[in-house]
């Protein structure tokens, strides 16, 4: 059976009146009424079979009813249908399902329908203002059923993305400490990539909307009873810390979902915008080594590789900017850490220069395109946005590169030259991008380079007269 079968129309064989149509659609009001009525009957106590326990009945969903409710799920993407469901008090019916049903599939479908309905502003406002419904939905973040978790996360993201109601949900989540544990539990233990990406998007949106909530989650980490439990043995989650959970989720999505990796790297970047977030990254038991190792591996071995075309920088600019921003913050605060020692990170310097080289290729391509007939206004806007994001990436890349170059010793440079991560072409590219803003860093590097390779230093000075004039 299809997950979302094709919905029925009101075109009846018996010449049913056009007034049965929902809004301007061809969907039948009568049919929708009948499905919602069946749903009410399912959760009514009198429906329980005398030959089976209530729980057994609720755990199973009649195939025909499941098929019909899936059709409603599909139909609810239409605004007229969503408004009709709202008028028929469908959210109240779904609350009855959440309260009484133990059927995961039924819960998933009902949350999914609400998620579709919430795409429309007025309905989203109504759903968001219903405190009882809001609390029930947050409780589903502690559900053990992955499809239900996915639909709940999708619904939350939809609401958080609408400015008119976002603060309602931020405040509601801030007042529910268990949400933190539930989200961390998912990020640290789930192998469902689709779910991890959606939960990551929720966390990313929350942190972007509310710094106070982000700070609370950074400081959080207490045992709390979460999810379904019995009176005798409450289910306890581990003492979660936000950074290890984000790292674990990033490792799960890195190979299969580039967009998901981008989301989790942006979460880390948001954490570095506050001192407490940076400390949460670098004051883990390993001093931040796991974070550095993951990000180092992404930059040096997976993203923007030597055999990639320069245009790859356009596709990866967002995730690269996030990663380099975190590495830059860590390098500045953990310069004495063994894992940050430059001898071990020479390949990272080579990767930073390669990113700048690819950006130069993109800038040349953009310049060549500017000579062609002017595009439509929307295309102009898209190009301007791309250039803006590339500039952000360039600024972050140059800052980290300058900080690393000025710390290099003669021995570090010799190692870089031997490994091929430094040569005249690469140094020239670095200088071209760093000067004049980072003159002090370039000058410091050049002094160490003279000790390692005087001929190369002289050649670079000839190419950059400003360095020769001030030495």
From TrEMBL:
Subcellular location: Nucleus
GO annotation, biological process: positive regulation of synoviocyte proliferation
The species this protein was found in: Pelusios castaneus (West African mud turtle)
Protein name per Swiss-Prot or TrEMBL: Serum amyloid A like 1
Family: Belongs to the SAAL1 family.
UniProt keyword annotation of Cell cycle present: no
Domain of life (superkingdom): Eukaryota
InterPro entries on file: ARM-type_fold (IPR016024), Synovial_Prolif_Regulator (IPR052464)
